[in-house]
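Model: Ready when you are.
Researcher: Fold this.
Model:
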Amino acid sequence: MAVQENKVIERWIDAEDPEPILEPDLPIIDPHHHLWDLRKLNDLGFRQEVYLCEEISRDIATSGHNIKKTVFAQCGAFYRADGVQHMRCVGETEFANGMAAMSRSGVYGNTSLCAGIFSTADMRLGTAVQAVLEAHLDASQNFRGIRTALPSELNSNFMDAFGVIEKFGLTYDNWSPDFSRLPILAELARRFPSVKVVVNHLGGKIDVRASDDDKASWRYAVETIAACPNAVMKLGGAQMRVGAWEPHFHMNNAKTPQGSDDFIDDLMPYYAHAIDSFGPERCMFESNFPVDKECISYRTLWNFFKKITKRLGLSDAEKNSVFYDCARSTYKL
């Protein structure tokens, strides 16, 4: 059943000229998507207010791409309304685990939704964060790690908490629109070489109309974190708005969605540099849906990614890594 609050974005997506599906049999893990119901609280103004099993399953099914598994990404969904404040975030893992259980029923298709889950925890707790992480682990066998903001300095509380992440063998996802913070993330990765550090969304806000100096600074920042062998890069998120800033292809600025060739023209240098810096074995394409849905359909997004690999001449093994194997090994799927 269509959700009234989703009608504007769904109408905009439906206005695109559907592209032929490229390589429909290629196995894919989507390692970064959100699920939520924002009808009562939507401070960031996301246009897709409801995105649950039915909505993501419809996007996957109508895309025609072979999405085998997905990973749920922290987004502040369904925190507990009661209990100790720092434990309320465990509600997000409980919620995502419920979505995984619904998916396992087969009612929503063959894709294993939320096969991996990463949520959050307050790193200011220091070693006391262990109780929160244990609660996440108890809440779901699919729990794999957390995503948090990064402090401007790696203070003792944060480092002590990170030691607990290392102890439990969990992943650490991070994104800031300010890519100049990537060297701090690199310092963290160097101090904890056994922790998988996952750089989200190409490392920061992607503005194709930025100055040459800003683009050069982004390239340098990416190279800095790529030098850490325990860091991996999520290739995606370049299609989203950041705060009040919106790219020219956002639904607020474009009457209809643009095609994958147009995205190649706009964004190819960013994806190419990230893959060149990290190597295909440490990169994974991500949808970042439904955030990126404000700029591109699920079908066109994965066509765009497949065209990137063709343009770069990636081998079959390299394609397997960026579409499937890096995500599988990172999140132990």
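Researcher: Now this one.
Model:
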Amino acid sequence: MHTQTRYGWTSPQVLAGILAMALIVAASNYLVTIPVTSIFGVDMNAATGFAFSDYVQWAAFSYPVAFLVTDMMNRVYGPSAARRVIAVGFVFGVALSWYLAEPRIAIASGVAFLVAQMLDVSLFDRMRDGVWWKAPLVSSLIAGTVDSVLFWTLAFYASGFEGWWNYGLVDWAVKLSITVLMLVPFRAATYNLRAA
């Protein structure tokens, strides 16, 4: 078990997590404005056979890293430290979104982030004693799905944006794919942090 009191708001471990979360939230708020036209020189529209760049922005690749940070904090420093990182990420994210987007998008983004991240911490903590990959994979897949459903529904339901759910499905599929790929850095980082 973890000694939760060791990792207060100003502990170096929590501050590092907060900095990482703030950078991811800031990057994602910027990258959501840039469509993915090619990856490693491959034209994604031609490779997928549909208008991929109309549906996917680079934030779909950066945002799942937020779950990686939360899961790393949870694994190494415990759920209390992870919740502290989420709280600051939430405030920072809503402030940025409020400045960069319309209020409905900012609220949808904030609610989806907070609910999904807290769900991730709770699910991860319940599964932490199993095989190393189970807790980060299952908690991030479920929380990522909740995040996508909440964001796309709150942001665009009855907004007049036709086909918003199509955009949400493509975005969700990309995010979940990235979540699976995040298992490799999760394993390496948590192993190194525990060894330190």
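Researcher: Key takeaway?
Model: The longest strand covers residues 38-39.
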